């Protein structure tokens, strides 16, 4: 996996946007809750990136290749796995571990830029990576997202985290919903994903109707660039206009 490291602090901060945003109550003892962020909507299956990161890390760790770029990506994927577990698995005890993991990629990328990265042995990370993969499997099963790898799966897009930096800032011109409907306007897309929020949050026992209504009213809108529907007619491009022929 080709990872382009950020060159300044502002880029590092922007690249650390999580698909899930943690919200904590005013009391220190309040249990944190999580919500999906539409402004982090990107176009790659989360599990595919997870498996690719783990495989690359295993392969590179046994050779002499520089691990710094893969290490950064792998840390980010582990964070996502723990976030998903804390959000939907009801394991609030993971909160402290998630917070710790959230801070690791930024510190690691800064260390990489300065050329002062200390690498941990492979065995020290094996448990963490395997645990993140197990969390994702439980999440996929519990939400019945059997089409996470499918091109047109809107819920999968919500959970996707695109690790390849060259694709991260690609404009979103249109999306294809599960029923095959193509929507392109900002209003249509936001309405579609609010429907997804409703369906997902119905499966969270701690979220009652009033909390759900409050969340939906505060959910950030997807900020789109000018729609480019013509990309749908171009061979080799998916419904977001991204080139599917690139490696």
Feature tags:
single chain; 247 residues; mainly alpha; two-stranded antiparallel ribbon; two-stranded antiparallel sheet; 9 helices; 49% helix; globular
Give a brief outline of the structure:
With 247 residues, the chain is mainly alpha-helical.
Mean pLDDT: 44
Overall 3D shape: globular
Number of strands: 4
Strand-residue proportion: under 5%
Task: Please characterize this protein's 3D structure.
This protein has 247 residues and is mainly α. It has nine helices and four strands; from the N terminus they run H-E-E-H-H-H-H-H-H-E-E-H-H. It has helices spanning 9-15, 46-61, 68-88, 95-114, 122-142, 154-159, 165-168, 186-201, 209-218, and strands spanning 20-23, 33-36, 175-176, 182-183. The strands form two sheets. It has a two-stranded antiparallel sheet. The chain has a two-stranded antiparallel ribbon with strand order 3-4. It starts with 8 loop residues before the first helix and ends in a 29-residue tail after the last helix. 25% of the residues are buried.
Topology:
Blueprint: H1 9-15, E1 20-23, E2 33-36, H2 46-61, H3 68-88, H4 95-114, H5 122-142, H6 154-159, H7 165-168, E3 175-176, E4 182-183, H8 186-201, H9 209-218
Antiparallel strand pairs: 1-2, 3-4
